[in-house]
Amino acid sequence: MAIKISDKVTWVGKIDWELRTFHGEEYSTHRGSSYNSYLIRDEKTVLIDTVWTPFAEEFVQNLKKEIDLNEIDYIVSNHAEVDHSGALPLLMKEIPHVPIYCTANGVKSLKGHYHQDWNFVEVKTGDELEIGKDNKLIFIEARMLHWPDSMFTYMTGENILFSNDAFGQHYASNKLFNDLVDQCELYQEAIKYYANILTPFSPLVTNKIKEVLSFNLPVDMIATSHGVIWRDNPAQIIEKYLEWADNYQENQITIVYETMWDATKKMAEAIAEGIREADKDVTVKLYNIGITDKNDMVTQLFKSKAILVGCSTVNKSIMSGTGALMAMVKGIGFKKKKAAAFGSYGWSGESVPMITEKLKEAKFEVVDDGLSLLWQPDDEGIEKCKEYGRQFVSKL
């Protein structure tokens, strides 16, 4: 299926309706995804990116229906990760001498993935490629958004920014454009994508967007490599990225917990009640770590001004789900968020100090030493948890 997105540009990608995890098992994709590839036909013909490896044969066969492969003058690889470059080996067997334009790091990545010495042309920010009387491609390095080799490609005349992973979403839809899809679903997937993938690079996001804006290039369309294309007011997602990159938080407190026999769960619910008593305007959300999708939890932590992490003590340590989530959060590197720990125990009670230390390692501002309760909370214990919730609000 090929879809024209402008006078000279056709979408030739693949919608992956069945995808449920990405980056191995690291990222959940409840709504599938797409691998967006674009064919530019002007005086010169250019293919921008390809698709993920499992769809390589289908991609090449469909591309042959759209164009004689020998008519392709240039290939642009905005990013070498295999979900964008996976069809290159099969495609290059057909047209081995066609030059591949990418960054210097892109050459290293593509050689590292495929061990082929293709006809690489290294580009850097500001380099241009003439493709027709009225159109040219301008390359913009986007290092660490989100790999060292990433770049944007801007097409003059059509005023299209091919942004690769930036501004994308893991979202399958045959509608293809942002104005045609469910806006709630779209923004749920867009903020989840930012929270889980781009948060570690937020300062770079801000600087890169400011750099691109400084070029004063009109942008009528942002053609991403995953999800929908932004054609209706594409500036809206740029504005959101600037907002999300600026230590984003809403008036929300998120409580995540892991529990063995519901004692820590009861503590979480009582703490939440105390928070609501102290601040009726704040949104409080609770998630059981053991049964909740980790990427969805990270998205909620991203939206929060403060978090509470609770866990039972097991074998003088914390439960596995809590340990995994804390490792994940440390890598993401949230900024300017407050936090504390709580948990129940029956023997030795190490969970709260362990979580507190992990929160500090993850650069949260820990507001106190946390709350530990022995065994199941009785009425007095429940009231202690409520009071802890009330006091937590006063420290924000």
Number of strands: 22
State the major sheet: 7 strands, mixed
Estimate nothing, just give the exact number of structural domains. 2
Low-confidence stretches: none
The average pLDDT score comes to 97
Shape: elongated
Question: Within the largest sheet, what's the order of strands?
Answer: 1-2-7-8-9-10-11
Proportion of residues in extended strands = 15-25%
User: What is the CA-based Rg, rounded?
Assistant: 24 Å
| CATH level-two architecture of the largest domain | 4-Layer Sandwich
Write the layout of secondary structure elements.
Blueprint: E1 3-4, E2 9-11, E3 14-16, E4 21-22, E5 27-28, E6 33-35, E7 38-41, E8 45-48, H1 56-66, E9 74-76, H2 82-85, H3 88-94, E10 100-102, H4 104-114, E11 120-122, E12 128-130, E13 136-141, E14 151-155, E15 160-164, H5 183-198, H6 202-214, E16 221-224, H7 235-245, E17 252-258, H8 263-278, E18 283-288, H9 294-303, E19 306-311, H10 320-332, E20 338-345, H11 351-361, E21 365-366, E22 371-374, H12 379-394
Parallel strand pairs: 8-9, 9-10, 10-11, 15-16, 17-18, 17-19, 19-20, 20-21, 20-22
Antiparallel strand pairs: 1-2, 2-7, 3-6, 4-5, 7-8, 12-13, 13-14, 14-15
Helix pairs in contact: 5-9, 6-7, 8-12, 10-11
Structure explained in plain terms:
It contains 12 helices and 22 strands. It is elongated. It is α/β, with parallel strands linked by helices and 396 residues long. It has 2 domains: 3-245, Ribonuclease Z/Hydroxyacylglutathione hydrolase-like (Metallo-beta-lactamase, Chain A, 4-Layer Sandwich); 253-394, Flavodoxin domain (Rossmann fold, 3-Layer(aba) Sandwich), CATH 3.40.50.360. Helix 10 (320-332) links the parallel strand 19 and strand 20 (338-345). It has a 7-stranded mixed β-sheet. The longest helix is centred in the middle third of the chain and has 16 residues, at 183-198.
